[in-house]
Amino acid sequence: MPPIPLLSIIVLVPVAGAFCALAASPRPRLCRWLSLGFAMVELALVGSLFFLPLEPHSYGPLGTWLFLEDYTWLPGLGARISLGLDGLSLLLLLLTSFVTILCVLISWQAITTKVGPFHFFLLLLEGTLMGLFMATDLLLFYFFWEIQILPMFFLVGIWGHEKRIFAAVKFILFTLSGSLLMLIALIILYILHGQQTGVYTFALHQLLQTRLSATAEGWLYAAFLLAFAIKIPIIPVHTWLPDTHTEAPTAGSVDLAGLLLKTGFYAVFRFAFPLFPNAAQASAPLLLGLGLAGLFYTGWIALAQTDLKRLIAYSSIGHMAMMVLGLAVLNITAMSGSLLQMINHGLSTSALFIMVGMIDERLGTRDFRALGGLWGKMPVFSAFFLFFALSSMGLPGLNNFVGEILILVGIFREYPLVGVVSFGGMIVVAIYILRMVQDTVFGPPKTEQPLEDVNPRELFVLVILALPVLYLGLHPDPALRLLDQPVQRLLGYFIQMAALHP
User: Fold this and answer.
1) Is 202 within 8 Å of 294 (Cβ atoms)?
2) Mean pLDDT value across residues 407-423
3) H or E element: which one contains 410?
4) Which one in 193, 279, 322, 373 has a CA-CA gap of 20 to 30 Å to 420?
5) 129 occurs within a structural domain
6) What whole-number distance in Å separates Cα of residue 74 and Cα of residue 76?
7) Which residue, 382, 383, 385, is CA-closest to 451?
8) Sequence-distant (≥ 6) Cβ neighbours of residue 20 within 8 angstroms
9) Is residue 140 in a domain?
10) How far apart are CA 430 and CA 389, in angstroms?
11) What does the H/E/C string look like for 435-482?
């Protein structure tokens, strides 16, 4: 146990900030500044982790963690408040704290009603995500997994657009359905482990030692995978995402694309794969097929969109499909690329959603038929829009290129034919991204309405987003070094399990 419970503090600070923002509801200006202050404190706390002398700790079959905290929670059930930090968790904590600051800044003028409750849910979501990305006790993970649904439900349902109630209900029905299956599978795994060992626990490192028949492992893995696939989302359980993105406020879309989609992908890597290694390896062809289907299907649908926000929502599903391909290959190159792409996608897609929000605030529409010619009216905005669109397309020198090239190289090593098809999918991505840019910023203006270019607050948001996009594109090595140990740890565990159960 560390002398200072820094991981617990990181979880609790946003929650404390949420209640402070709620208490300041009668004074909207104070509420905004309090929320920004707590979000910046959280970023500073996460940043401090990079400068601490973190020593690896042994913690079960999956090897080592950089930081561990463990407290008694529900002793009668064998559940504990166990938080662990490795390189993947560290990067996701940094992304979460960074994106939350952006959400507060972009909502400064956009949210004018119920300001206190809005920031309450925004910061509460940050706190639950912090806990989710560090939980090593499966009941604690499930607690955070369920709680994170509620803030997003209210953010969409209260501050969303015209069909916000429909989108919010669809979102919660999809996610709760998957969560229920995961809970049933978790209880079964808990009981089986207790019957075999006499120790009833939800600790990941102990549940890894549960002996399962091939049939039981397959069904339990399927339940976990479906719950996580809904959140990624993977075709065909993706239909909630475009509607939710379309109706969500800008901050809701940014949180959804930048953070919530990452929870499903993270959970597959952290829990589903190591708990059920044989079923996970057997499912590789299925995941490859679903990933390819998602890549081409969403690209085709994106080309038919007339709503800019909806197009970016479908592009987000396509990018996640590419990450699923990298995860399914089960080699270090593709898997590292997929995990890095989680961070890259969180940055570039968040930036695009933020810029769509800026367009909507000025024109009151996101329809391509009302856009075009923005370069002549908003040159600074248009330059940044082009920059982030090229990042999303995977232009060399920008962040997405690194993740995508690693994924493609890893796929070609194991499945050359899948690699060729995946490359074709990337061409489809390039087509609809270029079409988006052409219809938004180039061509003749569709309206005579004068438009204000970005203001200082918006310019600040775009600049601080552009910096990590450039940094990860030009110098990804520090991030890849953080991801190296978690990936090698999982692949080594797969090899170990294959040797024990040939």
Assistant:
1) no
2) 92
3) helix 399-414
4) 279
5) no
6) 6
7) 382
8) 34, 38
9) no
10) 9
11) HHHHHHHCCCCCCCCCCCCCCHHHHHHHHHHHHHHHHHHHCCHHHHHH
Diameter of the chain measured on Cα atoms: 74
Assess contact for 337 and 458: CB atoms under 8 A: no
Return the closest-CA partner of residue 418 out of 311, 296, 264: 296
Domain count, the chain: 1
Adjacent-strand bridge partners of 58: 64
Half-sphere exposure of 13 (CA within 13 A, CB side): 22
Per-residue confidence (pLDDT) for residue 494, from 0 to 100 = 80
Residue found by looking up tokens 């940044």 in the block? 384
Domain that holds residue 316: 283-476
* Alpha carbon 458 to chain centroid, angstroms: 23
| Six token digits for residue 108 | 């400064």
Helix (H) or strand (E) holding 224: helix 214-231
Task: Please report whether residue 312 resides in a domain.
Answer: yes
Taking only the tens place, the pLDDT of each residue in 350-395 is: 999 999 999 988 888 888 888 888 888 899 999 999 999 999 999 9
pLDDT at position 502, please? 54
Pairing of strands 57-58, 64-65: antiparallel
Look up tokens 């089986």; give the residue: 192
| Token pair 């993105």 in the structure block, residue | 245
In this structure, the chain runs to a length of 502
Does residue 456 belong to any structural domain of this protein? yes
